Amino acid sequence: MAKSNNRPRIKNEEQYEALVDKGYSKEKAARIANTENAGKKGGAASNYEDRTKKELYDQAKKIGIDGRSKMNKKQLISALRNN
């Protein structure tokens, strides 16, 4: 019988485990490993510093960062990088 697992299905288990081993939170590792292009290199995302505060706020809202409405651009960048 297969081992019971209480977490949602992960699209890229290998990438998930590697991210957790690097110290990423399980939530962030799952979010990354479940993206459409999980495991592929060469993302085309712009640098956080090149984005507007509204774009950063919207991204923080999308992933559920608490306290984002009181953060300035620098704080939003830090929160996004460390979530």
UniProtKB/TrEMBL annotation:
<feature type="region of interest" description="Disordered">
    <location>
        <begin position="33"/>
        <end position="53"/>
    </location>
</feature>
<dbReference type="GO" id="GO:0006353">
    <property type="term" value="P:DNA-templated transcription termination"/>
</dbReference>
<protein>
    <submittedName>
        <fullName>Rho termination factor, N-terminal domain</fullName>
    </submittedName>
</protein>
<dbReference type="InterPro" id="IPR036269">
    <property type="entry name" value="Rho_N_sf"/>
</dbReference>
<dbReference type="InterPro" id="IPR011112">
    <property type="entry name" value="Rho-like_N"/>
</dbReference>
<feature type="domain" description="Rho termination factor-like N-terminal">
    <location>
        <begin position="54"/>
        <end position="80"/>
    </location>
</feature>
<dbReference type="Pfam" id="PF23855">
    <property type="entry name" value="DUF7218"/>
</dbReference>
<dbReference type="Pfam" id="PF07498">
    <property type="entry name" value="Rho_N"/>
</dbReference>
<dbReference type="InterPro" id="IPR055642">
    <property type="entry name" value="DUF7218"/>
</dbReference>
